[in-house]
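My current task is to audit a protein record that another person submitted. Alongside the sequence sits a line of tokens, each denoting a local backbone shape. Where you disagree with what is written, explain briefly why. This is what I was given:
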Amino acid sequence: MNQQVSLMPKDAPTRVLVITGDVLGAKMAGPAIRAWEMSKALHQVCDVRLVSTQASTLEHDDFVVEHVDEAALKRHVDWCEVLVFQGYTLSTFPWIRNTDTIIVADIYDPMHLEYLEQGKDDSPRKRAKTTEYISEVLNVQLELADFMLCASEKQRDFWLGQLSAVSRINPLNYDPDPSLRSLIDIAPFGISNTPAVQTRHAIKGSVEGIGADDQVIIWGGGVYNWFDPLTLINAVASLVERHPKLRLYFLGVKHPNPDVPAMKMAAETMRLSDELGLTGKHVFFNTEWVDYEDRVNYLLDADLGVSTHFEHVETAFSFRTRILDYLWAGLPIVSTDGDTFADLVRAHDLGAVVPPEDVDALATAIEEVLYSPERAEMSERVLAFGETMRWERTLETLLAFCVQPRQAADRIRRASPVGKEVTRSIGRLRHTTFWRRSEGFRLFVRKLIPSR
């Protein structure tokens, strides 16, 4: 956010619908957390509804939270003035593209880059076709959205390139705002607006094998294919003889969204820990997923937060949400180099940054940070920097837009009868082309000419 924006609402609060395809409940992953926190922030200045197309058990006193089928979703879309969505919503419910609703696409997660790692175990054909499909899912969002949100300046540069490829960087959008901030701006993942307060010990003295005076390193999220916990396991193995009270705790292995498949890396991590004789002694796995409101009790039982990954394009444009929790809890951080947060850790002296897949460098960094006499001062710096990342600050651009929503400057062209027909034709062409390529001519014909 480059400037403070006055959030003076119009005569009647804007009606905003937030849609997530993730599970809203006690156990939530990043997309659901982001939608939930967006809704809580927006309800201060707008009339908000939050819906999940997957499942929901959440409630809020100040706004509607629901699990919806397609019919219910249509009613909510008819109600709203601004629709904020993430993921596959437009591809799952293509009729949304033809509404007059102002559309905000939350593209903080470059899904097509993520899948390059996630899909490595798929067949070459499936991997190629799925990558193509996800890219098209994103291209449709980029073509139709009135406003877009991403997680960092580096991501924004990436998305500007893709926006240029789908002709959204055009005179109609550029001339009123050469910065193009009115088309795409930054709204990073944030941390809680309230301080982290522990109500119980969830790790130390609670997990068998971890004592109250042990030193705990926490891996604060899922174990996915684009991460590198193997180097971390090997680094811990090299340290335990000198530091017998060292413990590594993986906060979550099983993803709360049933649509997210089990990752090969999770199995490889547990297998390596077993082979090295570390499991249950120095390395511990929480095989479920911690409740969102309870995670503070795990974080504040830790002494150090870690995030290790490989060197690839997903890393370069990622925004590691688990590190936000480390900031909230005041945990010094040891991170692999190459992503946005590595630069922040370095610039603000929040811990240490190491090269990818370097066991010795990682072990040295863990040892130096975890056992440093200045760790308390480092923790204070982490907390201070975390203040800049609270949700109330990171979502300022979204709130400002929704208080005074606007159609994109080039939407008039796209919303004209000719523009709508072109949009529909492109959509039909893209979908029929995808089906034809991926599932063969017979299925292509069935999709094109459905039986009556």
Q: What stands out?
A: Confidence is low (pLDDT under 50) at residues 1-6, 422-427, 429-452. The radius of gyration is 23 Å. Residues 151 and 188 are 4 Å apart (CA to CA). Residues 15-190+394-415 form a domain with the Rossmann fold fold (CATH 3.40.50.2000).
